[in-house]
Amino acid sequence: MVRKALIPLLITVLVVYSAQQLLTPVLAPLSRELALTETQLGLVITVAATALTIASPLWGHALQKIGLRLVLLSGLGLATAGLTGFAIVAAIGLDGTMPTPIVFALLLATRSIVFGAGIAALPVAALAVASTSTTTEAERTRATGLVGAAQGLSLVLGPAGGGALAVVSLMLPLYLAPVLCLLLTIWVLATVRPPSASAPAGQRGPRLRPWDARLWPLLAIGFCLYLSLGLVQVIIGFLVADRLHLGPQETAGAVGISLFAAGLILVAVQGGVVPALSWPVLRLLRMGIPIAIASFALLAVADSLWLIATSFGLLALGLGLAISGFTAAPTLVAEPAQQGSISGLVNATIGATFIVGPVLGTALYEISPVIPILAALGAVVTALVLAWVSPAARHTRVAATL
Q1: Coiled coil where (predicted)?
Q2: Are residues 166 and 229 in the same domain?
Q3: Is the distance from CB of 36 to CB of 28 less than 8 angstroms?
Q4: 365-395 as b/e, with b when 16 or more CB fall inside 10 Å?
Q5: Closest CA to 2 of 192, 147, 152
Q6: Residue 56's domain spans which residues?
Q7: Could you tell me how far CA 210 lies from the centroid of its own chain?
């Protein structure tokens, strides 16, 4: 059963991440209309990931100092402001009344820095509540898995909605996204009340650092898992086009169907399978990572759309299990008063992979199309080794009972 305290957080994560994903189908054509290069668009995404990575630990500490409600409202306020600014800048840029360099700089300020910093608060808050409102390892894994499922569902709903709206107008998703965030902010203001789920003032636990011996192997596992995804997610369109010799429209359709199916599998695993299994986090890691390894091995040799889609389906299954284990594992080595900090570090770890992954994936693809897939394979093999040999991974179950 979902704890009552977690439900508003799940709704918040789902709505804001869906609002973000509304923009996904229009970013590439919009960048062309704004006379931005592919590199500049990549920088917009990379800087946003950097802002999220830097802001996440800060939000984690803020949870312990100012409480859940203020963190949520602050994050939503920044996210709404960032998306509003993005829409305004894009509209002015399309009118041709602003030089392209200024448009680019303002896009970095609004969509990347302000929005990236704001959206970081939401999964940090959700993971902290999931951790502090549960007591057993099974409950913790189930709750954190639901947070992941909410994010995964946004990857299905957002692009589908954005694509449909873009048929009417390229700007319509940009206008709707901040409106959704504003309405959500009003709802949070009315429904989320103190006391917060963060640690009470004056009762903060010992400060946790990423290089803590109990923590860094778990964060390294998560980094490797998300890095593997980032490496292949960005090159899947090129891979489908080059291997299957498809045109732009055929490629977009094939990639869209494959990623949509994989997204549904990911949501089903994190939101349904993981809670039903009630496996310990270590078992989720050790069972999920080998499936991900098999998926990358298949993708490396796949020469048909069916095999490529199957490999992404397997990847969604494997990562759905393993990521649920990773998300819960660090929370099991921390005291209740440290859960905000832990959530910040977990979210920062995920964000860091999206700084490195897309840039590295495209660079490796230019050398050889199979190299980013082999690099992803190496990343998940590293994660599996850590899951088997790291004392930190082996002791998560024991820590949960302390």
Answers
A1: none
A2: no
A3: no
A4: beeeeebbbebbbbbbbbbbebbeebebbee
A5: 147
A6: 1-199
A7: 19
pLDDT by residue, tens only, the chain of 402 residues: 456 889 999 999 999 999 998 988 888 788 888 998 877 888 888 899 999 999 999 999 999 889 999 999 999 999 999 999 999 999 999 998 899 999 999 999 999 999 999 999 999 999 999 988 888 888 888 999 899 999 989 988 888 888 888 888 889 999 999 999 999 999 999 988 765 444 444 455 556 676 777 788 999 999 999 999 989 987 888 888 889 988 866 877 787 788 888 889 999 999 999 999 989 999 999 999 999 999 999 999 999 999 999 999 999 999 999 999 999 988 888 777 778 889 999 999 999 998 888 888 888 998 999 999 999 999 999 999 999 988 766 665 534 443
Structure tokens at 151: 């994010």
Provide the 8-state DSSP code for 230: H
If asked whether residues 229 and 177 sit together in one domain, one would say: no
Q: How far apart are CA 162 and CA 22, in angstroms?
A: 4
Q: Which residue has the tokens 């980094």?
A: 223
At 395, give phi and psi (nearest 5°).
-95, 5
Q: Is 266 within 8 Å of 316 (Cβ atoms)?
A: yes
Domain endpoint, select from 153, 171, 199: 199
Same-domain check for residues 382 and 273: yes
Domain co-membership, 169 together with 249: no
Structure-block tokens of residue 9 = 């957080």
DSSP for residue 235: T
Specify the DSSP class assigned to residue 1. Answer: -
- Which domain-ending residue is among 199, 221, 247? 199
**Based on the structure, what is the number of domains in the chain?**
2
> What is the rounded distance in angstroms from the CA atom of residue 232 to the CA atom of residue 375?
9
User: One-letter amino acid identity for 243?
Assistant: R
* Spatial distance between the Cα atoms of 273 and 167, rounded to a whole number of angstroms: 35
- CB neighbours of residue 359 within 10 Å: 17
What kind and span of H or E run contains 136? Answer: none
What is the residue type of 331?
T
CATH of the domain at 292: 1.20.1250.20
**Residues 14, 20, 23, 24, CA torsion sign:** negative
One domain, residues 193 and 242: no
With beta carbons less than 8 A apart as the criterion, state whether 261 and 253 touch.
Answer: no
pTM: 0.84
Same domain, 193 and 315: no
Same domain for 298 and 166: no
